[in-house]
Amino acid sequence: MELPSVFWDSAHEDMKRGYAPVDGMLMCLVCCRGFDLSDERGAEEHVAAEHGDMFEVLLGLEKGQNGLTENQEGILRLIRQGRSDAEIVMAGLAGATSTVRGYRLLLREKERKAKAFLAILGFLNEGDYKKRRPGRKPSKGWSILDDRFEITEEEKRKVLRTYFNEDKCVVRTFPAKEKNKIVILERLADLFEKGRTYSEKEVNQILFRTFNDISTLRRYLIEYRFLARVANGSAYWRTDPWHKQ
């Protein structure tokens, strides 16, 4: 299972429950559906009904994303169910009870190391280091009319047929190629009225209907200047990138 970027940006406790406060709302970390901040019960019931046990969601991540082998995932399922070492051996997931005991000890060791590592990362995300950390600087005078982005109407139609379902107004997959990306972003920008101001929650609700990773869409719409916003993110509006800066 591939999860949106908002999942990976969340604290591990939020990953466990499947939702987190994001951009002024409670957001499902699996499908990005939004709920009012006061509607924690609604978010909890949604996760349970639509996505099931978050333990299974975490075990079902793409290969390598949770750091577990298929056999280890099976052992963890049985440990969570309260199975004994002997029962785990009988299930064919280990050759001897001593192997299971060793794995339980390994889990505790991994937990200690993970806690220490998270604490270290906490220092890197605060204070002077964060201020000094090199980051991407926006280019001044960037224009979407760069020669790389000259796109014919036929190219646009082809990209939309490939990546966008017009009937459902849904992005099938978000393209990596720059030209294709711009075509999709331009189509998404059409969902916003010119001259109207939107709250971040309204932007998220509009984008949620088109793609499950709304954080990525919102970031690209800003980066490619199809949307603009105030510094604190409280207001967004449609802009026209099709001119030289």
Strand-helix topology:
Blueprint: H1 5-8, H2 12-17, E1 19-22, E2 25-28, E3 34-35, H3 40-51, H4 54-59, H5 70-80, H6 85-90, H7 97-124, H8 127-132, H9 153-163, E4 164-165, E5 170-171, H10 178-189, E6 197-198, H11 200-208, H12 214-223, E7 227-229, E8 236-238
Helix pairs in contact: 9-10, 11-12
Summarize the structure in words:
The chain has 245 residues and is mainly alpha-helical. The chain folds into 3 domains: 5-59, no CATH class; 70-124, no CATH class; 147-238, Arc Repressor Mutant, subunit A (Orthogonal Bundle), CATH 1.10.10. The protein has helices spanning 5-8, 12-17, 40-51, 54-59, 70-80, 85-90, 97-124, 127-132, 153-163, 178-189, 200-208, 214-223, and strands at residues 19-22, 25-28, 34-35, 164-165, 170-171, 197-198, 227-229, 236-238. It has a 3-stranded antiparallel β-sheet with strand order 1-2-3. Strands 6-8-7 form a 3-stranded antiparallel β-sheet. Helix 9 crosses helix 10 (178-189) and helix 11 (200-208) packs across helix 12. The chain is elongated. The protein starts with a helix and ends in a 7-residue tail after the last strand. The model is unreliable at 132-144 (pLDDT under 50).
